[in-house]
Structures
1.
Amino acid sequence: MSTSSPDLSSLRAAFAGRLLTDPADTAPFLTDWRKRWTGRARAVAQPDTTEDVASVVRWCAQHRVPVVPQGGNTGMVGGSVPDDSGRALVLSLARMKRIRAVDPINNTLTADAGCILTEVQQAAQQADRLFPLSLAAEGSCTIGGNLATNAGGVGVLRFGNARDLCLGVEVVTADGQVWNGLRGLRKDNTGYDLRDLFIGSEGTLGVITAATLKLYPQPAARMTALAAVASPHAALRLLELAQRRLAATLTGFEMMSRLCGELVARHVPSAAVPLAAANPYCVLLESSDPHSEANAAQTFERLLEEAFEAGIITDAAVAASIAQSRAFWALRENIPLAQATEGDNIKHDISVPISAIGDFVERTNAMLEQTFPGIRMVVFGHLGDGNLHYNVNAPEGAGGARFMADEPAINAIVYDAVAQAGGSISAEHGLGQLKVAENQHYKSAIELSLMARLKATFDPLGIMNPGKVMPVT
Ligand code: FAD
Ligand code: 2HG
Ligand code: ZN
């Protein structure tokens, strides 16, 4: 790839005021949410339309300039920021915010990639529909970023991940052509599924500029409860019972370890809930009932009584109001912020078969505690999907830098255990730049070879978000 500096003047002329080069203006685009990676860039381009995106990508292809697509910059694995070579151009989709169409009969909504997730949820609500993708970053992440990472979140148990919620995409390819694949079809077997290749590709195959999304009916009532359990094994027994009793109305099942509750109490006291800091593990359950509040409350309370009587849960609190329900969710949603405020941390966004989670946590906790005495496990996440944020913080009072030096050894223990359980080293956050090498280690040769061939086919010049997902060759 060229190291000389191509002239930006044609882009600057086309993007009057929307091509940032001043370091004070570009800085927010160059560091990720975790503040773990800071890169440099030639410029940050801010397109308004799909044709703008295409013209930037064509310019980048012509001059062999790497393109780093960026949405809300809330990713956890460093995918949205450039490396420190200063050669890349950051392509921020943040100004592309049009809701293009809502079709309540087809139950679809088509939105520009830069729409914030909450804006999409609100547009669906205005049409008396639900767009069920939901995650704590929803006030700043974009639908393009959600699709590019195939985000999960707290509704996957019932509605699936971003891929399951997307019927069509519009994409600017690596050579700057526009593919309009905005089909609102539930059935379309006309060959290879290009949409599904772009979803989850983290900006390494093309730029998603718009998407057609699936909508659902709004529920009549929602119930939320926090239940205390002794262990992840007990949480799994609760999951099995809840799925039996609530069937498809069970829409959320999140688990958190005691330290999560303690860290929220310490760093985000307004979101603290005493139950979470007083028990080894807590589960946040949510049901969404299509019929009525009375029906929802009755089924939910019966479930918790039965769980008590069976000795599965030791304590529980059912939210008596919308405000209390929000408070329970605030506890859960503030764990990442509380963990970041506590200090240097190592994240493992892992999945294993749901049935294997109890043993996985017990065995891996024991191995880590034995090898790194005092290490603190901050374990939480989407238990109903078999996906845990099996995160760790340094021992209380220990220096962060020394702890981070142990990251490769800590990762090896965790990921070997994940591999042994038949799991994945990235359940929902993607690979970004964080897990490229580890993916090469844990994936089979044939998978890696097919991935490399796809990358070369879609992006022969290697300009699309280089160094993310795949190693630079
Ligand atoms: P960015 O961070 O800007 O980009 C992410 C990746 O997508 C990068 O590789 C980027 O190059 C690429 N990209 C962005 N936009 C485009 C585009 N239009 N076309 C092509 N490529 C693009 N994630 C979950 O899955 N589940 C959670 O529950 C969850 N909770 C979170 C909670 C918090 C507090 C935070 C900070 C993050 C959380 N995340 C979660 C991670 C993050 O929010 C998601 O990965 C989200 O989908 C990223 O969207 P974004 O717009 O911020 O993308
Ligand atoms: C969540 O579920 C996010 O809250 C973030 O996926 C997880 O901070 C993390 O590790
Ligand atoms: Zn998560």
2.
Amino acid sequence: MPDPYLDIRELRALLDHGECSATELCEQHLTRIERLNPTLGCYLRLHEQAARDAAREADARINQGDTSPLLGIPIAHKDLFCTKGDIATCGSKILEHWRAPYDATIVERLARAGAVVLGKCNMDEFAMGSSNENSAYHPVANPWDASRVPGGSSGGSAASVAAGLAVAATATDTGGSIRQPASLCGVTGIRPTYGRVSRFGMIAFASSLDQAGVIARSAFDAALMLRTMAGFDPRDSTSSERGVEDLDAFIASNGAFSEPGLRIGLPREYMDALKSAGYASALDSARRELESLGMSVVDVSLPSTFAAIPAYYVLACSEASSNLSRFDGVRYGHRSTDAESLEDLYRNSRMEGFGAEVKRRILTGTYCLSYGYYDAYYKKAMRVRRVIRDEFAKAFESVDVLLTPSSPGIAFKRGELSNDHIAMYQQDCFTTPAALAGQPCLSMPCGFHAGLPLGAQLIGAHFSDARLLSIAHAFQQATDFHTQRPAL
Ligand code: GLN
């Protein structure tokens, strides 16, 4: 049986040379999941039968000489992507029994590419959270230390890749949900440019911020996944019509370095805010590594960085209060049996179906949008968003990429921040600015502190996804942080 930590290219070679079959790979993963998932909690449900069928089809295609990059590769989907005929809970009790009537665009594209979907990953309810403790089902343990959180909201996706329970996983990032868990679990996660990947069939939290992306073992694997997922989709009006580059070819040829003089910006505000000396020194080594690859370093300033968290929470909650109004007990999901009037039905279905954090956000958002407060909160937050976006645009006039921490520190203990919402929201202090501005950004492993992984964030100009991945790939060619694995 192959090592469960091989990357997509290594697996491709084994599959194409007949050294292992997609079916064997699928069985190996299912067995490993059976052994480790009870303690880790990465998966909410397995799609065993569908996975075995897909693996068999992949084997048939491989036998006919098909060498498509993702053919036969075992992956997982975050449980907010619709998979036709299957349950998609979005981590919520309100959707416990809800079956999706269609496939999300990315689900469809990955299936066509021959990827084998093992199951659906755990997440914070409606993607609201930074620790996976808001899942209505069960928490996810960090594979590096089971007493710690994996981050969130895509904690199940990040932990499954880190634990060798999926080769790659889809995920979403509204304010940090790909990058922060990737950082805490020691894996690579990219949030592409807003509009690069279709949101069709992705259960909405805050539509102007939500973006689908990937968590994988390496930048190269992330590129292989993203190339399949990305591209225009007429069913998502915000999806970009721009063509998708041949990401993996670009990266394999070190495309970002084809012109000399790449400049990395170090945003002063991020570095000054980083409290952990261990993290600061890991980032410093990452910077030196990038310099040795030929990049030059420039100090930059993004003065409004710390207005991002308050602006994000006003905007994300406002949009959530509107998006989640569809869960009314009539059209989707849980319906209360304790209702005498229509009003009761709405109230009780929502009261019984939503968890505490979701309710808090709906109430906050409704408040921010209400008459008399709209200008003071929503409109002001929109102005802050514009300023943040302008500051990024200005920074990218003088640098090609920004290097920052991905999270404030290493994975924290389960329960440590549960009673302090503000401290929990601060987990996203380094990730929300780029999300508000729609920039592509990724987190890649850059070191360890107290035996736990740390991530470096790269942020790029709009649609520079290929360049970001190429820089991360070059970094990973020169370092081995991304190949470290937890003892399981
Ligand atoms: N942790 C942030 C929140 O709770 C971001 C979540 C996300 O990106 N989905 O809103």
